[in-house]
Structure formats: C-alpha cells, structure tokens
Amino acid sequence: MVVEGSMTQGAGQGPEVRTATLRDFRVPAYVYEGVRETGRGDAEASDTAEASAEQVVGQRGAAQEAGLGQVAGQGHVAAQGQASASAAGQVSPAAGRAPVGGQAPVGGQAPHTGHAPAPVHHAPQAPTRLAAHVPAQAGPVERPGAATPAPVQPQQPSAPRPMEQPGPAHPVAHAAPARPTAQNAPAHPGSAGETPEGYTPTERSLPIINRGDTVQVEVREMPEPPPAPDADGMGPLYVVGDVHGYLDELVAALAAEGIIDEDGNWSAGNTRLWFLGDFTDRGPDGIGVIDLVMRLSAEAAAAGGYCKALMGNHELLLIGAKRFGDTPVNSGAGTATFQAAWLLNGGQKTDMERLEDHHLQWMARLDAIEEEDGHLLVHSDTTAYLDYGDSIEAVNDSIREALTRNDADECWDLFRKFTKRFAFRDDSGPAAVRELLDMYGGTRIVHGHSPIPYLLGEVGSEYDGDDDGRPVIEGPHVYADGLAIAMDGGVTMAGKLLVCQLPLRN
C-alpha cells in the first residue's frame, strides 16, 4: 500500500487513480460499428481480435510487475459491450481488485454474478465524433472489499479472425485497430478509410472533368492591326476658302462636292479636307461654322480621313477681343484695342455671346502653315511667316507659344502681321512665293484672306448690294506665274464660297 502523499511508488505498483496516457486515447472499435451493414462482420471480428490482444498484453504486464495485478490500459472501453477477456478465455489475476471511483472493470470484464453473461449485440449506430477521451462503459460497479468473483468461461464469438500473437520484444505493444477498407468505407470524406480514386476533398462531391468532357477551342493569335495608311493611301485632297460665318453657303458647297450628306454628316470616307481659316465675322453664324468644323473633324477621323483647319487673322482677332477687350495695345497708328478692331472688321455680337472656352481652346491650337501633296497651305498672302521660324514646325510652335504667353502687345503684333496682304500680286509676287516655297517646301502656295475680286482689281471694297457691281467668281484664282492659288471667293461681297479639289483640274 502506498502512503498518501508519497512521492514514490513501489516497484511495478501503479497509483490508485491514474491519469490516462497517450496509449489510452485510441480510437475505440465501436466508432467503426455500423459504418455500413456490409462491413459489420469484419468490424466485429476486428474488435474481438483487438480485445484478445489487449488481454494478452495486460497479463504479461501484470506478471512483469511482480504479480501486483494492475493491468496496463485501465479505463479502455471494449466495443459492443462484450467482455474483452472472452476471446482468450482467461481472467486477469487482478480481477479481484476493486476499481476506484466507479471505474469500469479492467479490460472491460463483467463482474461474476454466478452465471456467464451472454454476449450483447447492439444495433448499428452512426459514427460519432471522436472525443478527447473514451467514456467508461456503463455497468455494475464493484464495491471495495467485495468477494473476488470466480473465473467464468465466456462464450466464444463465432468464427473469430486469427490473431498474430504478440512477441516478447515490447511488453506494452498494442494491436492497431482495424480500419475499414476502401470497399467498406462510406463516400463521405469525413468517414474512415481511404478516399476513392478521383475524389476531390470539397464540401460536396464535384464531377471529374476529363478532356473529352469539354469543348476544345483552338486559340489563334490576334492579327496585328493594319499600319496607318500613308499619304499615297489617303483619299483626295480638298481645300475650303474663307467662310466668315456663312454657314448655309458652307453646307451647300460641301454637299455639292459629296463631302457631307443631306443631314450634314461626313460622307467622304478617307477624304482629306483643309479649311484655310477665317471662320467668323461679317457673316451671321460664325460659331455655327466652328461647331460644324469641329464635328466634321471627329467624323472624318472615324471614317479614315481627316478634316483640319488653319488659323486665320480673324481667329487671332476674336481670341484677342475675348481675352483683352478694351485693353490698350501699341500699334503703328497709335493706341488701339482688340475690341474696337474686332467690331471694325465685322465682329458679330451674337458670336461673342455664344463663344465658349472650348471654342477658344480649339482656335488657339490651330496650325498656321502646313504642306500637303506639294501644296504649301497658308491663310494670308504674306511673307510674315518667315519671321516665326525656318520650318513649318517652328512657325506653328512659335505662334502657339505667343498665344500661350497671353501678352496683349505680342498678340496684337501677331494679328497685325497676318492681316497684311497682296504680297504675291505685283511683279515681285513670284519671288515672294519662291522664298516661302524654298523655306518650307512645296511647289505651289495655296492661300485665302484676300478675296479674289480684290486680287483682280474688280472691286475695292465690300459688296454694297448693287447687282451691277457684284463680282462673278467661277473658281480659284491662279497667279504669280502659276505659283499661287487664291481660294477666297469673296462670299462676304456676294461672291462664291469655294471648295476645291487639289491639284486643280485645269
């Protein structure tokens, strides 16, 4: 007997109350009970074999512990309520020891009551969740000091599975519990047993998709976008002279050339269209003209062509009037203002009222000079472009930078230079044209600004409504030894708004 509170135990003697060790926490055989009806026989045989092995190991342990009778594995629960010692037909010598605290008899052995208990068969139960401990099997409890029950020979289970006897190498070896095979294991992934072939461990079973179950689609490389067409692949080139707010005349002239349809939409495909400037002033709807040109630019680009515009002296005048108003500027003739000059040159109050920021931004970004198919396109018939750069790019950049600086005097000087005219009309005209062509390229210069009636000397002022003095304009005017083409048909003096294809046919 161990003294209470003692720190040592006798040789081979266990404590009265023992804490379960790792070997006690094995999966009880009844977990596999009733997993499937078809596997019940195998499970029973496995449990019986396990109980027999347990009994043998317990006896050997008791002998090695000097016959003190404490069997290792106390608290282990036998499956299906059967006596684990019944398979071997022997009773542990320590069976007479009274269990402590209501523990079940060692090895699951039932107490002797004078006759052999019959084997108990339970109905199959659903597998239960494995707990951290194994509960003791319910049954009669032996009282301390009770008589030792006589050995009882229990009934042998039918057709027990042969069991391999444990060897002497390890006195505490335990027989591993039998596990259901893949044929007996349920399909649920939480059940014991090996998973079926091809099973995906998800919450619900998903079908296995084989190569033949899907549609095989050939993936082809995306073709590279076609290169942008060069000048040779573009459509015909058209130019438009000064419009000066005459929107209806512009629509009629564009429709006559097939550039727009009856609804005013772009219908010319990859045609190239250039406006030579002066969209506002003198006519009734300058802002309407700007809106039309901006819209056609987007539609032409979507169709593979383009619609572009140059800056005229009247765009510079409208920008200055809006930005500077009555701010005095230095001019060669004295003090002047953009507002006064704008009104003097046909400025329309309705245009100013409808002028918005996006109109101003669009005008301020326009180029002043361009070259297309050997034609040097400008607005004014002047050599003032030479003052702003020795290349087309330099001229356009210099003018945009001057407008960006927003200096009233600098903008006025720019407007004044591009208001000059008739540089190509006199005897010195061909030389002036060649100077520009030599600097910027091209074989002919195409301009607006100066109305053809002015160049011909037929009128010296705006049309006054007299039919006898009305100029007759049939088309562009070619002069300066054939080096210059004038495109302002004098629409402000009851002339003609010109839209012509280049090169000229005759």
Automatic annotation (TrEMBL):
Residues 110-123, 170-187 have a biased composition (Low complexity). SUPFAM superfamilies: Metallo-dependent phosphatases (SSF56300). Transmembrane segments: none annotated. Residues 151-169 have a biased composition (Pro residues). Residues 37-63, 88-123, 139-206 are annotated as: Disordered. It comes from the Bacteria. Residues 236-452 form the Calcineurin-like phosphoesterase domain. InterPro entries: Calcineurin-like_PHP (IPR004843), Metallo-depent_PP-like (IPR029052), Ser/Thr-sp_prot-phosphatase (IPR006186). Pfam families: Metallophos (PF00149). This is Metallophosphoesterase. It comes from Streptomyces flavofungini.
